[in-house]
Design goal:
- The chain has 426 residues and is an alpha/beta fold.
- The chain has 14 helices and 16 strands.
- The protein is 36% helix and 17% strand.
- The strands form 4 sheets. Strands 4-12-11-10-7-5-6 form a 7-stranded mixed beta sheet, with helices on both faces. A 4-stranded mixed beta sheet has the order 1-2-3-15.
- α4 runs parallel beside α11 and α5 packs across α10.
- The termini are far apart.
- The chain binds 4'-deoxy-4'-aminopyridoxal-5'-phosphate (PMP).
């Protein structure tokens, strides 16, 4: 079949759902034909510097020779095989990397097919753990406002109750517990008051709570908010005190984005269950993991249903595992820490002056994340068009214009991005 760009775009508009769009009145989509390094190429030949890393994922840039090679080599051997009763080296190797790189108590790896599913599995692990321990009344989760954990039902139920989709699914989503968003910013001196409502909720509901779930340090899609590592330490302390499981959703923060390999390292604490995704495959394909401690893994397995009740068709997909291994090797072989620090320094220098713009409410930079928060929500279609005209691909949402660039981005391209951000926020 041959058709023109205009023809397939028109078909797309009529038939394809895009993320968070209407089928009747969708926002415009830009036809992309290729991606190389830190640039995306539009069908009309224009090249855009990519500020999104395709939503935090493409940390090494696009069309990476080492990741391509891993994909080709694995596809020539075995693209997929069921994981039930089958073991393969790409999965074992990936699990070994993850067990070695994450905090020591995390020893058991569940390979999931997307970030949301890894959160579902994390929640299922926590609930099943308590069933196995003879405490099935522990059904509730405690989290913090401003969070985002994915779009499936268990995930939605712990997303921010105001910004999330709770109002649409009232009466359908389980009712969980929400502490206020931590107020102490990442670099600020700790205010012990910040944890008091969390502590009160934990204390009041201690016999019903199965687990606490939070995004460590960076709350991403729920508002791009960076909070104090001390908050994580306090949460860990309280979970230990009350014997409640702790889940860290590191799907956005994992693999160096915040300046540490994992955000949990900022607080030097270890969760009982941890979710990883996004940059796991360097942005090549969907794959996520849920890691668990021995306490959780054995605790589940000693129960009345001695197996973890989850096993998707494409679990452990060898192509995705092989690319994830290549992505981790590429990351570890690079000077990623210096690169992320360098990006952080330039973003700070470039973006902080925007604090004085009348439209700008706040500026935040941490690791390879740069955020301009406006007083009012942006007009997505208009601002996106303006950004494309300026030669960049940045996808604002709500009041936020932000970037999560590839770690390999050079200074000129980064300044191109930050200049465009400031231009549309002036
Ligand atoms: N948790 C966090 C912190 C995320 O940022 C996301 C994705 N934006 C998810 C979960 C869901 O991941 P996915 O979109 O791969 O289902």
């Amino acid at each position: 079949m041959t058709w023109t760009t205009q023809e397939w775009l028109a078909f797309d508009r009529e038939h394809l759902w895009h993320p968070y769009t209407s089928m009747l009145n969708p926002l415009p989509c830009y036809p992309m034909v290729s991606a190389q390094g830190v640039c995306l190429k539009l069908a009309d030949g224009r090249e855009l510097v990519d500020g999104t890393g395709s939503w935090w994922c493409a940390i090494h840039g696009y069309n990476h020779p080492r990741l391509n090679q891993a994909l080709h080599e694995q596809s020539a051997k075995m693209s997929h095989v069921m994981f039930g009763g089958v073991a393969h080296e790409p999965a074992a190797k990936l699990a070994k990397y993850l067990v070695d790189l994450t905090p020591e108590p995390l020893q058991h790896v569940f390979l999931a097919d997307s970030g949301s599913i890894s959160v579902e599995v994390a929640i299922k692990m926590a609930l099943q753990y308590w069933v196995s321990q003879g405490q099935p009344q522990r059904k509730r989760l405690l989290t913090i406002r401003g969070g985002y954990h994915g779009d499936t039902f268990a995930c939605m139920s712990v997303c921010d109750p105001v910004n999330g989709m709770h109002h649409l699914f009232q009466g359908i989503l389980p009712q969980h517990l929400f502490a206020p968003r931590p107020k102490t910013r990442f670099h600020e001196a700790w205010n012990p008051e910040d944890i008091s409502e969390f502590r009160r909720l934990l204390d009041t509901h201690q016999t019903e709570i199965a687990a606490v779930i939070v995004e460590p340090i960076v709350q991403g899609a729920g508002g791009m908010w960076f909070y104090s590592p001390q908050y994580l330490r306090e949460v860990r302390k309280l979970c230990d005190e009350y014997n409640i499981l702790l889940i860290f959703d590191e799907i956005a923060t994992g693999f160096g984005r915040t300046g540490k390999l994992f955000a949990t390292h900022h607080g030097d604490v270890c969760p009982d269950i941890m979710c990883l995704g996004k940059a796991l495959t360097g942005g090549y394909m969907t794959l996520a993991v849920t890691l668990a401690t021995q306490k959780v893994a054995y605790g589940i397995s000693q129960g009345q249903a001695p197996m973890l009740m989850h096993g998707p068709t494409f679990m452990g997909n060898p192509l995705a595992c092989a690319v994830a291994c290549a992505s981790i090797e590429t990351l570890l072989a690079s000077a990623w820490q210096e690169r992320v620090k360098g990006l952080e320094r330039i973003m700070r220098e470039e973006l902080m002056p925007a604090r004085d713009y009348p439209k700008v409410a706040d500026v935040r930079v941490l690791g390879a994340i740069g955020v301009l928060e406006l007083h009012e929500a942006v007009n997505m279609a208009a601002v996106q068009a303006q950004l494309v005209d300026l030669g960049v691909w940045i996808r604002p949402f709500g009041k936020l214009v932000y970037i999560t660039p590839a770690y390999v981005m050079d200074e000129a391209d980064l300044r191109h991005l930050t200049t465009a951000m400031k231009q549309v926020c002036q």
